[in-house]
Design goal:
Shape: elongated
Number of domains: 1
Largest sheet: none
Order of helices and strands: HHHHHHHH
Number of strands: 0
Strand content: under 5%
Helix content: over 70%
Distance between the termini: 110 Å
Radius of gyration: 30 Å
Amino acid sequence: MIDLTEESKSGLAKLELLKKEYADLFERRNYMLQYEETLLASLYLTLLGRFQFRLFTLKGDLSQLNQRIQLAQAYFNRNELPDWHSIDKKIEAKFKDYYRQIEAEAKKLAAAKEFLKTNFISDEDTQKLKAIYKLLVKKLHPDLNPRHSTKDAELFLKVQAAYDLCDLDALNEILLYMTSEESVLPAEMPGEIPDLNKQIEKITAVNVDLKEKIEKLNNVFPFVYREKLKDEKWVEDERTQIDLQIKLVDKELEMKTEYLMLLKSWKPELLH
C-alpha cells in the first residue's frame, strides 16, 4: 500500500467535504422541486388562494356587468332598444378565456386540497428519506464518481424514482444492496485515484451552480412564501385584506346589477 502525501490527504479531505456539500445541495433542490413546491403551492391555495379565487371571480363578474352596461348604453345612444341576446353573445365570446381560467383555477384548488389530504409522510420518515437519498447521491451521482458505470446509472435512476415517490422502503433496499456490494469489492488503489485538483475544481463549480439555482427558487412563488405561510397572523392579515376587497366588489356588483335591471326595464316609448 502506497502512503499518501499530506497534500493528497488534504485534497481527499476537501473532496469528501465537497461531495457531501453536493449531495446536500442536490437533495435540497430536488426536494424543493419534487415535493416542497407542490406542498407550498397547495398550502398557499388552501389558506389564501380560495379567497383570492372568490375575489377573482367577483371581479370577473363585475367586468362582464360593466361590459353589458356599456354595450346597452351604446344602443340607447343610438336611440335604440338593446338587443340583449346579441349583447350576451358578445360577452360570452369576449370572456371565453376568463371562463377557461376560472375552470383551471378551480381545478388547482381541488388538487391542492386533495394533495394536502393524501400526500404527507411523517417528519421522521422525511428526515430518513433525505438522509438516505443524500448518501446514495454521494455514491451514485455521475458528477461525483469518475468511474460511474452503466450499473451505477441504472441504480441512480431507481434512487431518483424512489425519492420522487417518497418511497423510503425502496431507498433502504438500494442502500442495503450498495452496502453489501461494497463489502466484497477490492480496496481502491491509491494509484487509481483520479486527479484530485480536477475533481475539486469540477465539484466546486457544480456546487456554486446549485447554490445559485436554489437561491433563485427561494425568490419566486411559492418558495418566497415559505416562512409567511407558517405565520398565522400574516395569513389572517392577508385574508382580512382580501375579504375587504371582496366586500367592496360585492357592493359595486350590487349597485351595477340594480342599474342594469333599470336599463332592462326601460320601454320603447321612453326613447322618443
